[in-house]
Amino acid sequence: MSAALAAILVTLFGLAAAGWWFGVHRRRQAETEAGIDALAAMKWRECVGLVLEALSREGFREAPASRQPGDGGTEFLLTRNNEQVLLGYKHGTAYRLGEANVRDFANGVQLAGATSGILLTLGSAEGTARDTARRYGVEVIDGNALWPKVQDYVPAQIVENVRAQAAERTRKGLWSGAVGSVLLGVATLLLGNPFDFDADAPVALPAASTQAAPAKIDLDASAKQINAAAAAMAEVAKMSETELAQRRVEAATKVSTFTQVGSAAWSTQSTLLVMLKRTDGDEKNLTQDICRILTQYEELRYTRVQLDPPMNSNIPVRWRSCQ
């Protein structure tokens, strides 16, 4: 195979891979994350109304007087096919359902006389919680699964905003992938056998080779950087949900050690909420330090950082992006 053909194939493969990763996979993730944020911004009654409407299309009906006084309106008794199902709903993205939450809810299912239960949250659920839920006949639905279920019932304006945010988040990744693919193709072309291009071409003079050397070195460095990023993403893809969650906790813990930071926690899968102890309204150096931590984890490279000012501060909430 000639170097020219190899370069074209490498470029096309890189463009296809970048298009799928950023244009499909990351776009879908970004839209889900933006959708979760939009649901969290609603009042809980509006959000649970969308949930009930979506479930009604699956045959669930709310039982008369199912909202018991004093329960905060977070549990509803539903019926389907003459069976009673208890629906539990936890509003907000900060919830992380654990095994204890599922056990408590399973007890509530028995007390309500229901045959099964559905536990929903805009947050996330631990792997142990899902295992426990299966044993008790409880279906756990977190934010990532909830948004696709209710997005058809969300007002059109909100859906448009969600898709616009997702497009903005993935646009930079698509450009980076396209540029990287072209650079990798050019590097393949220059590193290949020069006689593959034209057997009758004169041998390049030493001076010409010397002039071309800096460009080749730069392209080699770009290729190595791209290969390193691809290798890092391949390693991330092999990790379990528990390992990824531990890396997220580790990154947030490191950020919380900065003297200017009061606390750091994940409000969504792609947003790191940073509560500040003090602020000058700029935080350029702090943002650089935070991004230095986040970019050590390839899957967190495109994290959105939310900077919340101290209490009684007139400075508004700000958002920053690392890459």
UniProtKB/TrEMBL annotation:
- InterPro entries, alphabetically? Restrct_endonuc_IV_Mrr (IPR007560), Type_IV_Methyl-Rstrct_Enzyme (IPR052906)
- Please give the Pfam families that the UniProt record associates with this protein: Mrr_cat (PF04471)
Q: What is a GO molecular function of this protein?
A: restriction endodeoxyribonuclease activity
Which superkingdom heads the taxonomic lineage of this protein's source?
Bacteria
Q: List, for all copies, the residue spans of the domain called Restriction endonuclease type IV Mrr.
A: 40-146
**GO biological process terms held by the UniProt record:** DNA restriction-modification system
* PANTHER family for this protein: MRR RESTRICTION SYSTEM PROTEIN, TYPE IV METHYL-DIRECTED RESTRICTION ENZYME ECOKMRR
Q: What is this protein called?
A: Restriction endonuclease type IV Mrr domain-containing protein
